[in-house]
Design brief:
Layout: H1 2-15, E1 24-27, E2 40-41, H2 43-50, E3 58-67, H3 81-84, E4 89-92, E5 94-95, H4 98-105, E6 108-111, H5 114-118, E7 127-131, H6 137-150, E8 156-165, H7 167-179, H8 183-192, E9 199-203, E10 206-210, E11 212-221, E12 224-232, E13 241-246, E14 249-258, E15 265-272, E16 275-283, E17 287-291, E18 296-298, E19 302-311, E20 317-327, E21 345-347, H9 354-378
Parallel strand pairs: 2-5, 3-7, 3-8, 6-7, 19-21
Antiparallel strand pairs: 1-4, 1-8, 9-10, 10-20, 11-12, 11-20, 13-14, 14-15, 15-16, 16-17, 16-18, 17-19, 19-20
Helix pairs in contact: 2-4
């Protein structure tokens, strides 16, 4: 019976919702410092820290719609220009329900208008709150600066926090919490789910198949770099276009033009040493994406790649999933024929990349140098020739006989 109760308690804990823990920036009073930026401050702890300040201070709380700790780590000059100059201050990266803690201290007086907030008189023992309706952090900073300048002579404690976390930050914690122990269940769901359907585009000179295209754009947030991923939708109603470098001969190179929701995608294929090479992709307002490795495949095969990723100079990435390309070189065949069978696949996975080849070659040179040096060390002091028994003994003239 006790074992059953134990499992029921564990199940209740696992099914419980994750707490919403937005960050909080507090200034105007000395509060206990957080040991680390990962320290969790629950509602009771925040209540006990702010309750002694109520009688001698006026408390103003600013609530954004959503915040994350990374919002405070930006390095732009105009990012939280006022909050950066405050000394001393207290920053807590995870605070559980700060509004509940304030309501336990005293009834919260909500200020709806910005002008009314700027005209608040100094009222010790009262808690006022204001809601920001947008994500304009610079405007938040300017308003808090204006309120602080208005109440300079008032013992004021101010709190800048949010009602919830940033959606993606909370979603990452939610996924880590719920999906960590459910890998088998996810595998069963994935097994029963339908596989995504690839989009097939045809032209008289070739056929292209792609499952999905993802564009990842680099976004800098302070010292960290995140990627904003956008799925590019291929317009299957638009025909595949093939632009030849030489209109008389496809063997001199060509470019595939795929219509998408974000503009045309140009895939350049050039001949190299009797093979085809995928040299570059032009997309998103003439941004050039180049593959990291040299992608070659024989003209006797079709190109097949599970994941084909290219990179731009600005740090963006363009990934094509389940990409297949077949070029028709025989004038008697056409890829528009529904019965056309593509050639066998030439996989893009490279087990011996240029980096691995250079590493192996350098290791062989170092091993050769080590072997020669070891041989020379072992041969020190060893006689290569021994005296014969029939020869007279060597006579070495001593120093005294000179």
């Amino acid at each position: 019976m006790n074992i059953i109760k134990f499992f029921l308690i564990v199940a209740t804990i696992v099914k419980a919702d994750l707490p919403v823990t937005p960050p909080a920036f507090i200034w105007g009073a000395e509060l206990p410092k957080s040991p680390t930026i990962f320290e969790f401050v629950n509602t009771k702890m925040l209540f006990e820290m702010l309750r002694p300040l109520r009688e001698q201070h006026m408390i103003i709380a600013y609530f954004a719609t959503e915040l994350t700790a990374k919002d405070f780590s930006c390095l732009e000059p105009d990012c939280f220009e006022f909050l950066r100059q405050l000394r001393p201050f207290n920053f807590y990266s995870q605070v559980h329900q700060p509004l509940v803690a304030l309501r336990r201290i005293s009834p919260v007086i909500w200020v709806e208008e910005r002008e009314a907030l700027l005209q608040l008189p100094c009222q010790k023992g009262e808690i006022h709150a204001y809601n920001f309706t947008d994500r304009n952090l610079k405007d938040h900073d300017n308003l808090m600066k204006a309120v602080s300048n208005t109440l300079t002579s008032c013992p004021l404690v101010q709190i800048y926090t949010a009602h919830t976390e940033e959606f993606w930050a909370m979603k990452r914690r939610h996924d880590r919490f719920y999906l960590k122990g459910n890998r088998r269940q996810l595998a069963r769901v994935a097994k029963n789910s339908l596989a995504p359907v690839s989009t097939v585009l045809r032209h008289n000179l070739g056929v292209v198949s792609v499952e999905k295209i993802v564009l990842a754009e680099e976004v800098k947030q302070g010292l960290t770099i995140v990627y904003k991923r956008t799925e590019v939708t291929v317009i299957d109603d638009a025909p595949l276009q093939v632009v030849l470098v030489d209109e008389r001969n496809i063997n001199n190179g060509f470019a595939l033009v795929i219509s998408s929701s974000m503009g045309p995608i140009y895939i350049q294929v050039m001949p190299t040493m009797g093979n085809w090479r995928l040299s570059r992709i032009v997309f998103n307002e003439n941004v050039t994406f180049i593959p990291r490795d040299l992608l070659f495949y024989s003209k006797k095969f079709s190109f097949c790649c599970r994941l084909f990723t290219t990179y731009s100079e600005l740090g963006a990435r363009l990934s094509l999933y389940m990409f297949h390309l077949d070029v028709v070189l025989n004038n008697y065949f056409s890829a528009l024929d529904p019965d056309y069978v593509p050639k066998e696949c030439w996989l893009c996975e490279q087990f011996l990349t240029p980096g691995i080849t250079q590493g192996i070659f350098s290791a062989l040179i170092l091993l050769l140098i080590l072997a020669i040096g070891t041989s020379m060390l072992l041969s020190i002091g060893r006689n290569k020739r021994f005296s014969s028994a029939n020869e007279p003994e060597l006579y070495v003239k001593g120093y005294a006989e000179r």
